[in-house]
Amino acid sequence: MAAVQAGVSMNTASTRNTICLPLEVLDTFGCGCVVVDAAGGLVHATPGVAAWLGADDDAGLHARLLEGTHDMSAGRRVRITRSALPDGGALFRVEDITAQVRARVLRDDALRAMSHDLRSPLGAVLTLAESAADGTLPATTETFGQIARSAELALARADAVLRLLRADAADPARFEAVDLTQIAAEAADECWQAARSRDVKIVVDIGDPDAEALVIGDGDLLRGALTKLLQNAVMHGPRDAAVTLGIDDDGDAWTIAVRDTGAGPDALARSVLLDAEPAGRPRGLGLAFVRRVCDGHGIGITCSRDEAGSEIRLTVPKAAAT
User: Fold this and answer.
1) The pTM is what?
2) Cβ-based burial of 281 (10 A; exposed 0-12, middle 13-18, buried ≥19)
3) Comparing 62 with 91, which gets the higher pLDDT?
């Protein structure tokens, strides 16, 4: 897909001036760009756009240049728009909108949770309080304990919704350098009580304990996502077992692996973590939060399972060296 033209002439409606751009400038636009000539011949395609569209060659790429939104392999969703060029050719803009689609789906889940999932515990609080006040129920420790448990459930569900919305609103411009080893230690500490209740041992395995695993991101969101993955492994894996949280240097990225000896996420949970859209409505918002944090930080996720147990692996881009 070599460039065969020195530049592309584009007419802007706002200024009515003709601008000539070197083709290489298109490669810096942050999306895929494909230029075809008046005869439909391929002039230029930015790196990676063929993979986005699942094309193996020029002919396959050209056949996929259809305006609109399309579902591709591996759960990817792209949007293609076409702009006419003065010489009769066309410029196709190819955007990977998978993360945007997921953000919309997760926002919808959050709003459903806010309107539905909070109704039950809050209704219980109101009913119990009114019953204790009018004498229908005795004002005993047991009654007030039920009120407290319902209130705690409502707060937990509200907190999950707010965490999801905060992840969705995260601004990369405000990210800063954070150390994954410190975040891993804090996540393990937050899961200590749950692990103790199930006789589970959390093992933090750092490849190089003396090195800082620096990444650019929101430390609170990253800690929350890692804590949720650990909590899932502790609470849904076998009792009296070990959960390992490992961090390793993988060249341009750090890998974080949460391993346990259980069966791992089921099909629905895996779809929440891996697919463009979940296979069904998630049972909770925890894994949706993890996925949104990963999308916002450019973190890759994989799930695997073998005879020894299951593993969720995150690939986190390293902070640029200064």
Assistant:
1) 0.61
2) exposed
3) 91
